[in-house]
TrEMBL record:
An accessory protein needed during the final step in the assembly of 30S ribosomal subunit, possibly for assembly of the head region. Essential for efficient processing of 16S rRNA. May be needed both before and after RbfA during the maturation of 16S rRNA. It has affinity for free ribosomal 30S subunits but not for 70S ribosomes. Residues 11-91 form the RimM N-terminal domain. This is Ribosome maturation factor RimM. Keywords: Chaperone, Cytoplasm, Ribosome biogenesis, rRNA processing. Binds ribosomal protein uS19. The PRC barrel domain binds ribosomal protein uS19. The lineage of its organism: Bacteria, Pseudomonadati, Pseudomonadota, Gammaproteobacteria, Cellvibrionales.
């Protein structure tokens, strides 16, 4: 997909047009949404290829963001960008504090838990498939694997220090203090 061998990361999506002068509506996957425009180097994914673009103006609009793509000055041309993913280089993300993780770093980690009264015996609950933002806290969605304790999908609150006791990126594991209760 990318000739430079870099690490592209989807950071937003163009959802439609705004006005008649080539502006587009943007759904940002960053938090806060304005952080999307701090990267300074954006690409759009079109038909499997990444094409560099420049957002020369942007602003909050309602619950979302709108932006102008340099060289796109009419609604018809802006319409052709609808649905395209906005991609940035993953290494352009700011470093995080100790114990903080980007969602993409947690995806694919094996999630291990302990059964009640099992002592130190850990059981594989599944792998982190994706996360959900709920407002109160983020939620890990665990997908069962062939080695999991069972074939159930699990939703686990992502609460470091509470339900999540340890994240180890080098070992690719996340330890969960969440007991399996059979009804």
């Amino acid at each position: 997909m990318n000739e430079s061998g870099s690490n592209p990361l989807t950071a937003g999506k163009i959802t439609g047009c705004y006005g008649i002068k080539g502006w587009v509506k943007i759904h940002s996957f960053t938090d806060p949404a304005e952080n999307l425009f701090r990267f300074g180097k954006w690409m759009l994914q079109r038909r499997g290829a990444l094409v560099a673009v420049e957002f020369d103006h942007w602003k909050p609009q309602g619950k979302g963001m709108v932006a102008h793509i340099a060289g796109v000055d009419d609604r018809d041309l802006a319409e052709s960008y609808k649905g395209l993913q906005i991609v940035v280089e993953a290494d352009s993300l700011p470093p995080l504090e100790e114990g903080e993780f980007y969602w993409r770093q947690l995806q694919g980690l094996q999630a291990w838990g302990r059964e009640p009264d099992s002592g130190d015996d850990r059981v594989l609950l599944g792998t982190v498939d994706y996360l959900i933002e709920t407002g109160a806290n983020d939620v890990l969605v665990l997908k069962a694997t062939g080695d999991s304790i069972d074939d159930k999908e699990r939703l686990i609150p992502y609460l470091p220090g509470d339900t999540v006791s340890r994240v180890d990126l080098e070992e690719a594991v996340i330890d969960i203090d969440w007991f399996i209760h059979e009804e």
